[in-house]
Structure formats: C-alpha cells, structure tokens
Write a structure and sequence with these properties.
This protein has two domains: about 1-45 and about 100-209, Ribosomal Protein L4, Chain: A; about 50-90, no CATH class. The relative contact order is 0.18. The chain has seven helices and six strands, in the order E-E-H-H-H-E-H-E-H-E-H-E-H. It has helices at about 20-25, 30-45, 105-120, 135-145, 160-170, 185-190, 195-209, and strands at about 1-5, 10-20, 125, 155, 175-180, 190-195. Helix content is about 35%, strand content about 15%. It has about 210 residues and is α/β, with parallel strands linked by helices. It has a six-stranded mixed beta sheet. Helix 5 links the parallel strand 4 (about 155) and strand 5. It is elongated.
Length: about 210
C-alpha cells in the first residue's frame, strides 16, 4: 500500500511512502492487542487506595462491657468493625497493578494495531514541520486543514520538538508522541494516526529490527 505525503496545509505533495506489509499488513491478533492495552492501563493506576483496619483507627482498647450477662452479643473495643467509626474489614490496601507480558506479544500487538489503522485508512503521512513558537492556534489550524479538529489524533514524531508539543498540549483530543514511545493504546484510541516522514522511517527501523 502506498500513501501520499501531505504538507501541514492539507495539500498533497508529489511524494509517496510505501507501507511495509510486515508492519502495516499483518493479520491482526486482537488478543495480543487486548493484553497490551490492559497492561498499559493497569500501569497507569496509582494503586494508592487505602482504608484503616481495626489496628489503625483511633480509639480506646477498653472492652465496652463484660463478656457475659448483658443479654446482648459480646463485643470488644470501640474499634470493632461492626461499630460506626470502627476499622474496616478486608479493605483495599496499596498495591501495584502492573503485570508483565512478553516482548514478542507487545511487538505483535503494536503491529496488529498499526495494521488495523492501515486497513481502515486512518494513517496520514506528513512532511516534517516545525512552528516558530508554541501556539495552540497554529496547531488547531493545522488540524483544521485536515478536518480533524473534533477527532482524536496522535502525531508521531522522530524526536522531541518543544514547540509542537507545547502547541498541542491544551487540545483535549490531540496527543504528540515519539516513535520510540508509541504504544498500542495510543494507536487504537486515535481516530487518525499522523506520522511525520522522519518518524515513519523510525517506526520501520524499530519494528523491522
């Protein structure tokens, strides 16, 4: 498959780029995509949830009433979980939600995600560009040239560009990532995946190595 290269004004140039079948033309493995996205979302969880148990809540350890003879159920101290203000039984504790999946599965997942986007014609190739200064308006105008202002877009770049990164930061549906940091979640969640020419070459180096 060949794609035309566009400039940031939305115009087609005379250049074309061929999509590698080994990256953008494989039979997608949906289960690998599921595992990679699940791992990414799990790693985003802070895991700082915490409730106080019986030994942690503030209160006296004095036994409230004698064990027998009251006619009511036996109770211990005021920190009993059955009382209001007592400790919680089996409450959530801080934990790490991250888990491991094999590198081969990650590679298959990302190639599968890219193949899905290529099949759905959701990939756009752009000439390398830059802004003179950070400007949200400039980035918004760039998106409007492709009628993508209301769409979720991911722009993939080969190296960090501070002006472009800062220009896109205030736009809710726009994300800028490096080719080396592109993940399955970003690919699958984007309505349009935009590569600069240099980042496209970087992607081919990463996944063909």
């Amino acid at each position: 498959m060949k794609l035309a290269v566009h400039n940031i004004k939305g115009k087609t140039t005379k250049k074309e780029i061929s999509l590698s079948n080994e990256i953008f033309g494989i039979e997608p493995n949906n289960h690998a995509i599921y595992l990679d996205v699940k791992q990414y979302l799990a790693a985003q969880r802070s895991g700082t949830h915490k409730t106080k148990g019986r030994s942690e809540v503030k209160g006296s350890r004095r036994k409230l009433r004698k064990q027998k003879g009251s006619g009511a159920a036996r109770v211990g101290d005021i920190k009993n979980p059955l009382f209001r203000g007592g400790g919680r039984v089996f409450g959530p504790q801080p934990r790490n939600y991250a888990f491991k999946i094999n590198k081969k599965v990650k590679r298959i997942a990302r190639k599968s995600a890219l193949s899905h986007k290529a099949k759905d014609n959701c990939i756009l190739i752009l000439e390398d560009f830059n802004f003179d200064k950070p400007s949200t308006r400039s980035y918004n105008n760039f998106l409007s040239n492709f009628n993508l202002v209301d769409n979720k877009t991911v722009l993939v770049m080969s190296e960090t560009n501070k002006n472009i990164l800062l220009s896109s930061r205030n736009l809710k549906n726009s994300r800028v990532v490096l080719a080396s940091e592109l993940n399955t979640y970003d690919v699958m969640s984007a309505s349009k995946l935009m590569f600069t020419e240099s980042s496209f070459s970087e992607i081919e180096k990463i996944y063909n190595s």
